[in-house]
Amino acid sequence: MTRFGLSSCFYKDDVICMLLQSLYRLKQASRVCNETIDKHLKSMGFEPADAGPCIYTRGEGEDEYIVRLYVDGMVIASRQKAVVTSVKAGIAEKLRIKDLRRARFILGIVINYDMEHRTLGISQRVYTESIIKKFDQENANLCLTPLEPGVHLTKADQPQTRPR
Fold it and tell me: What is the CATH architecture of 20-101?
């Protein structure tokens, strides 16, 4: 951790910044924020998921909903729009939130909705292309793995487990 002396806080006799005590408190701010959200979600009946400490679930089946926390936001997922609306209202009772509407892009994943067929598709094409470009692999040789193009698998093709 770098400590800033007073000499580093001045530039041409004007004060730019002074960060001696604030650094530690800024580090604690995210922890306090998480504790506040955690306490409120638990009071609403949510439980932290085994999959991770920032995933909360409530209900089952058609009535199940999931809240996923990120550094500066959250995603609420449910099969029913009314449930999402009620969860947002419950969270807004305690916390100031801004509704950014339906998620289209989260952590490098593009989300495509087809409301007519009630399907949801995800794609990491943009993320994959950025990794290929980052490591200068645009002209790399292609490899057909794990299957040849055009192979169509069905449920009958899956491996069968033997009872013990």
Answer: 2-Layer Sandwich (3.30)
